[in-house]
Amino acid sequence: MSIRTETINGVARIEIARPEKKNAITAAMYQAMADGIAAAHDDGSVRAILIHGQKDIFTAGNDLEDFMNNPPAGMDAPVFRFMQALGYSEKPVVAAVNGAAVGIGTTMLMHCDLVYCADNAMFSMPFVSLGLCSEFASSLLVAMNAGYHKAVEKLLLADPISAEEASEMKIVNRILPPSEVLDYAVRQAERFNKLPPASVRETKRLMKASWKSITEKIIVDEAKSFGAMLLKPEAKEAFTAFYERRTPDFSRFS
User: Fold this and answer.
1) Which of 210, 201, 212, 254 lies closest to 232, judged by CA?
2) How much is the pLDDT for 1?
3) pTM for the predicted model, two decimal places
4) For the residues of 146-167, what is the DSSP string, one character each?
């Protein structure tokens, strides 16, 4: 099982559970996470959703082999179903991050409501270095949270982001020792059990209302660009170099 779901004490837990592949996410896993979020919405006993990985890895991002064999085709693809489920979630979403959070492992956090990470967490968004472009509205949200110039470093140059810098960039709420992250996130999620659920949902809606429509538009715009760039020779060179374990050569492109 690559995605585990269970509901305990009002918290729907979605665990990325493929440690043998560094929790790399396949199309089937995206669909399972989307289904898990949808089920949490339909369950009146659920007051919050918690997304987490293992103690030493959150996710290495897309499983590149699966991604190339099953490229996203339109907004009905599993990855976009997951984006829509998380982005439109009415109930609060908490994330617990240990270790690496690569690609969508970082961009998904900007759609969560509370994010807690270990002091050994490392975030990155290497889309450009793969011949692709930003996704999940990260072209908007990174700059909105951290400022344009910081976003250039992280999205264009793909500079890694330490736990401390992630806090400065307003990607995470709090940094904790690795052994404490998940338990702390669970306790925070359980706090919603004592709050009126309608008030929580309405306040979350109001907080996101001013930028909801532009976020939705950018997710679609990025998806179109991402799909087009996936077919270009730059992406082919980047993926071929990855499989051949060499540095890609983009010198012939203009």
Assistant:
1) 254
2) 63
3) 0.97
4) H-HHHHIIIIIS---EEHHHHH
